[in-house]
Protein 1
Amino acid sequence: MSMYEQGLGQNAANHTPMSPLSFIERAAKVYPRRLAIVHGSFRQDWLTTYQRCIRLASALHLKGIGKGDTVAVMLPNTPPMVEAHFGIPMSGAVLNALNTRLDPEAIAFMLEHGEAKVVIVDPEFSQTMKKALEISKIKDVLVIDISDPLYTGDGQAIGALGYEAFLQSGDPDYVWQYPKDEWDSICLNYTSGTTGNPKGVVYHHRGAMTGAISNILEWDMPKHPIYLWTLPMFHCNGWTFPWVIAARAGVNVCLRKVDAVNIFSAMKEHGVTHYCAAPIVHGLLVNASSELKQGVPKGVKAMVAGAAPPAAMIEGMETMGFDLLHVYGLTEIYGPAAVCVKHEEWDLLDIGERANLNARQGVSYHLEQAMTVMDPETMKEVPADGVTMGEIMFRGNMTMKGYLKNEKTTNETFAGGWFHTGDLAVIHPDGYVKIKDRSKDIIISGGENISSIEVEDVLYRHPAVMAAAVVAKPDPKWGETPCAFLEIKEGSQVTEAQIIEHCKLHLAGFKVPRTIVFGDLPKTSTGKIQKFELRKRADSAKAIDV
């Protein structure tokens, strides 16, 4: 035994489990009267927020909820959703933030699969939840209703208790406990499940804390940021940002509805410094009217992930004066776990070349041990030549525990000691990773591989194109050819021939879409274009999205 192992063991003084719950405790102690939450005319400081989280934890405890129990919430980006990210795990329970855009059948599956004991629901989604509870086989679920003065719809209470009354039943002096083990589960998130049942991704306290700290590091986030909730908090727990904002004692500016008017209004009113969103939301801002953009603070820091951002969108953000950071990740790795780190010398390049560099997925986060591209058959790293394709893989603390009740898929996903993403990419000579496509989105035409992302990037550069998606369409001669679905900017007009001519200027002939379809594109609640729906429309052989 080494001398460094003698009498130097772990004890309560030198080793404690990591948990993001420590962030709100510190914010309340150090900055008790600093603003924590804004929601319309509502204002709440950090001490009050912490006290309400303690009451929530206590109220759950008094109902017999504790370690290993699931508490599901179906809430928009409102103050109770912020509180849920602390109060629920402070009781020892696991937070299951449900996708508010799903139908009752999908919600019913999640409630049943996750064995929810408590459900907290906003009136906007009460009828969906009511139907889901009727469909599901779970019994004796405690349903708690939220009341939000900013909601003007006709949603009705469906539960036995109101949220405020439930909090008042909690003990304000309740002594909540940190997890005994940082591997304890903190959250359950379901993947989007386009066919079949979604998978339940389980997060641990250590991963939630390291993910949050890494987001702070990647963004060089100062104290007291003013953060606008354009990203749904149900999506990978808002990429860990409920915990991030507590760690920095910032302001959560809540937003029930995401559109250009509400976003720009909130930025102007509250002096927003940071926000996160999928490319489609950033695209809304880029393409908004000049009147809406007047008076917007300069230097707003925007984080983009969720799909490979087209270079044209990156250019548009820079032109608006926004500082865009491109990150990459998946639900299984707490949202973003890789970042396209910018270099000062890039500033000397023209905007087009700079945008192309910033569109890469980059390198691993500080606290994720590694991200690379491997041949999934040999598990060897591909050469950094910018050409050889492999699969992006991660390993480290910011990786899920696994899929709930699905050991087989968990083991397959972690084969070889790495998390397999399913994303195909190359490594550039500078070590930066660049996605070429999802494995199921590669179009094979006449034996040649075509990256749908490459074709989409060209389409986005047409001034009339608002959103673009390219999928495979069966072809009797070539097997498959690219089919482009386009959403056109309001007030613009363009023909199929003009789009094809534009593509011919920038792409090899076999990559040019043979079919152009105009119309609104189906999107998920987080702004991702639903390619599986488009594959169905194109009658693609790859229409089944697994």
Protein 2
Amino acid sequence: MSDGPFLLVVSHDDKSETHAFYKDVVTIGRSRDCDLFLPDRLISRIHCRIERQDGGFALVDAGAQNPAKLRGRPVMRATLNVGDRFEVGGYEITLSEPQDQSVSVDETRPGGDQARGAQDLVAFLQIARALNEERDLARLLTQIVDAAIQLCGAERGFLILKGGRDDGGEPSVEVARNFAQEEVLSPEFKISRTIANRVMATGVAELTTNAQEDDRFRDLQSVADLRLRSVLCIPIRVQTEVGGVLYVDNRLQQQVFQEREKTLLMSLSDHAGTAIVNARAMEELRRKQVELQAALDRVDQLNGALKGQLQETTSELSQIKEELSAQSLGLRSKYDYKQIVGSGSAMRAVFSLLDKYIDADDPVLITGDSGTGKELVARAIHAHSDRRDMAFVSENCAALPEALLESELFGYVRGAFTGANANKKGLLESADGGVLFLDEVGDMALDLQKKLLRVLQEGEVRPLGSQQTVKVDVRLICATNRNLEQMVQDGEFREDLYYRLAVLPVHLPPLRDRKEDIPQLIKRFLGDLQRETRGRVRVSPDAMEKLVAYSWPGNVRELQNEIRRAAILCDGIILEGHLSQHVREGRRGPGSTLVDDGLVPSERGTTLPDMVRELEIREIQKAFDRAQSNKSRAADLLGLSRFALQRKVEKYELDAQGRPLPKGDADGPTPDARSE
């Protein structure tokens, strides 16, 4: 074995770096004083070391709670050969040698001043960039403390600001964290208030390498009680004045902080002060935005009283309102949900939930009536998540028979069944790394539910006819318009699968519960139709009043179809007469009865089955009329799957328009008949 340099190839998050060492003992750990610095909270400050020994190297544990692993086993001391790979926390490290000893490898030895300075600069630039991008004050303060702990290798960090929220204007501890990014409880009793107050008053940083022996601090009661060793306290200047302090310590080790750490934290505090000013300004902007939203609500009330105003004036007021609402949504939401129209309180609550759900990786269950836009929400989660560059795969569980749905989800191998002439990848495998959206999951058969549960538990799929399993990494988003909880109680849906799917539930409100969004939705639909209608289409105040008042049992999809039909019929302005009769009359609004609607003549002496048959036929005919004979749309309006509607059409012998077939027509509609 040569006495020349040896190499350590460090791999983490699909990235690798090569470091050259000339020393006989190389330390590895979370402390920046280590020769190989690995910033991972699962790694001890000094985790392990590599020692040269006669004829080779040894990997030696330094007292870590989770020792380094060689060949999958924890190591106290083991021989390390060139080419061996061992694990430290989330890092993989390979021992290597330069292939050409005459070629100079990286002469910047880790642990030296030049390398340490470069590492400090890279770390500081990353932290500064993160602070500049954060606008939420609470998250920003937490990032500042975590950054200070990381830069200095501290045990704990505290951020104290003047004018604390809970102390009547007195300085308060806003954030208290340890090196494992855990909250420190009762932080006001864990720091030296004397040191913090003195730095806040003078604006001069204070550093001690051992407070127990430092003449400035050893007589302080807090230093003695807390048994403090290394302490570093830096002022934070907010708009030229000291607005707080950044306080880090280590109770167990002395000499942890030196001038290097002091310089780093002073630079960090300068950036932190600017970031805090910006975040506070953003909070003030949000507060004013609440007032703006209240003003918008008052504008909504005034709009209702301006029925007789000129059409152009009404349109302009509506446009101003929508622009302000869009601005409000942009400020209040972390992501831009521009494909989902809605600025009322109901949809803002949905967007607030999505903000929290997007960064997670757990299953999402979207519930709501048909036509509320469940797939739009699923696509929004995918578009803003870390999986945005991977596949979004969608399937309607109600659109396929059980056997066909199983083969679509899990795939199959050649020869698995008659007609399986080649291997086919299933949707779960196709969505690997991305998102799988299962619509109408409540219509999935129980046997198939069990197989889906196994995929969620084990993270692997076995194609039909195969003995091999395939690992998949899929975020599952499901949607249903059915009451899964009731189905669980009735034994129609597996309880264990329900709790697996409903980790992150979100309920989409029906359109009748967010009528303030109807004008915005209408504007979006008219904008989409503008190219087809070859001109701008407006809605008269009378027509708008009827549209807003109607209960929309078919939700957004029904509204879209209504606007499309009216836009085609009108001559530039949708009047009340262009609307469907049931919309004008509001016949299916809340509180209406079947008898009041004229659907079931109460004076008839028919039997209950006959009344049910008549009612279903009438409703199917109405749905076909409103959907312009489109079977899928009619099924959505009725709250049925397309196959369920087809079975009823066959049962009652109806044609493609929902009308009874002529007597003697024995063939009836074919199961595959489509009116798309």
